[in-house]
Amino acid sequence: MPVFTASDGTVLAYHLAGKGAPLLCLPGGPMRASAYLGDLGGMADHRQLIRLDLRGTGESAIPTDPASYRCDRQVDDVEALRAHLGLARVDLLAHSAAGDLALLYASRLPARIRSLTLVTARARALGVDFTEGHRREAAALRSAEPWFPDAYRSYEAVWSGTATDADWDAIAPFFYGRWDAAAQEHAASEVPQTNEEAAERYASAGAFDPAAARAALAALDAPVLLLTGELDSGPRPRVAEEIAALLPGATLTVQPGAGHFPWLDAPERFTRTVVDFLPQPG
To answer: Is 3.10.129.10 the CATH classification of the domain at 3-131+194-277?
Structure first.
């Protein structure tokens, strides 16, 4: 397992899969170990995936200063990995909550971005986020599913602030396009892979300055792909349109029938979309 040392001395791990031009992958959660990304639906057949375990997750060490879990402070970790790999510019892929981290990295170090792929990604860094209304809107699309009545009751408990651990488990089907055995196994890995303390600090006060990030990214000279799921609630496709409008030259793709993990719902379609977008090696 390869490692490198962050600027504050924390030893961070990353995982390699596949061959070809490197694709640096940031996991969401927030603060979930990168193992859940797997090979991104077969992307490792086309690119060398470099999956970073964010500090305090997976095989990476717990930092001395817990405040360093804050999203903006982890930009230095991404830059340290780029330098460690000896890459002048990176093709950067971010999933879910890591969208914020990727956007902050691109706003601070735009010259280091060769391309940016945002998969069902949050954009609190730009002042855009999902709401309970978005969750309800997406949930309504699943009303014919056999698991819907019980899962929706648990969702109501989440929104009212009375949810138990069992309720949190019960709403998992809403995040997958198909609630099959593969999705159930994937969902079961979330809790053991997540650093809860780090997750609470990730978007804490001071992490984001949307006006500054928007201004910086308005001049980004790199292709951007926003890939969202038709059934996903965070972000809904129409919210992804808002995000795309803030990024020059961004391409928005909505994957039909997909939830929050589109590489699980239709691996070949997901892989083809991303491969077709990524710049050719060279």
So the answer is: no
Angle at 228 between CA 40 and CA 110, to 5 degrees: 80
Going residue by residue through the chain, which has 282 residues, state the pLDDT in tens, using 9 for 90 and above. 899 999 999 999 999 999 999 999 999 999 999 999 999 999 999 999 999 999 999 999 999 999 999 999 999 999 999 999 999 999 999 999 999 999 999 999 999 999 999 999 999 999 999 999 999 999 999 999 999 999 999 999 999 999 999 999 999 999 999 999 999 999 999 999 999 999 999 999 999 999 999 999 999 999 999 999 999 999 999 999 999 999 998 999 999 999 999 999 999 999 999 999 999 876
Q: Tell me if the pTM is above 0.90.
A: yes
**Which of left, alpha, beta for 100 (phi over 0: left; psi -120 to 50: alpha)?**
alpha
Report how far residue 243's alpha carbon sits from residue 150's, in angstroms, rounded to the nearest whole number: 33
